[in-house]
Write a structure and sequence with these properties.
about 90 residues; 4 helices; mainly alpha
Length: about 90
């Protein structure tokens, strides 16, 4: 059983992407080949920004708000369904 190389797997994934995304990826590859040290510095900077950003707190807060609003939303949707059933029976 042969293992696929990373390049083979990436090229298969690239076949799924829309043309605009493929063009952006190709541009990034060209830039990385022409300026490897700059690309490494940009990647390190982006990693630092993402690491220092409060992503965990934002996601946790969003989850708490979503769960807090879930119960009232289900009650409202249930009420709408009951109203539709009652209204439907009046028409028949």
């Amino acid at each position: 059983m042969m293992n696929e190389s990373t390049a083979d797997a990436a090229s298969k994934t690239g076949d799924i992407l829309p043309p605009a995304a493929r063009g952006a990826i190709d541009d990034a590859r060209v830039y990385i080949r022409r300026h490897p040290s700059r690309a490494l510095a940009i990647a390190a900077g982006a990693g630092f920004v993402l690491h220092s950003a409060p992503v965990g707190r934002l996601v946790g807060g969003l989850a708490r708000v979503s769960f807090a609003l879930l119960r009232p939303a289900l009650v409202v949707l249930g009420g709408i369904k009951i109203w539709e059933k009652i209204k439907h029976r009046e028409i028949l």
